[in-house]
Design a protein that fits this description.
Blueprint lengths: L8 H23 L1 H4 L8 H12 L21 H9 L5 H14 L1
Helix pairs in contact: 1-5, 4-5
Length: 106
């Protein structure tokens, strides 16, 4: 005598629904710390934020003679590209936090 595991498509929908809830909950747990803590514990993040402020937000106008952007396609410019677009709507620091959140949540 064999029993069938699952009950057809209804069980599959429940399983997929609970998987989505699990992934959604995990994404929220991973993203929330970027917004509830004042500092993000990445050693060189303040330097990156300072460069982004100089390049995009007009921070420290005299610094542009010491720090200029030399644009070329390299893989680690994703944050700069994101901040270039998003900084027009939110402050640079929030744009960086949103970049981290989107990166972790995908």
């Amino acid at each position: 005598m064999h029993k069938t595991i699952g009950g057809g498509t209804g069980t599959m929908r429940q399983l997929l629904g609970s998987t989505r809830i699990l992934y959604g909950s995990a994404a929220i747990l991973l993203v929330v710390p970027f917004f509830i803590f004042r500092d993000i514990p990445l050693y060189d993040l303040p330097t990156h934020i300072a460069h982004l402020e100089i390049m995009f937000a007009g921070g420290a106008p005299d610094a542009t003679r010491h720090c200029t952007a030399e644009w070329r396609l390299i893989p680690n410019l994703a944050a700069e590209a994101w901040v270039f677009v998003v900084h027009q709507f939110v402050p640079v620091v929030l744009a960086v936090r949103l970049f981290f959140a989107v990166t972790v949540a995908q």
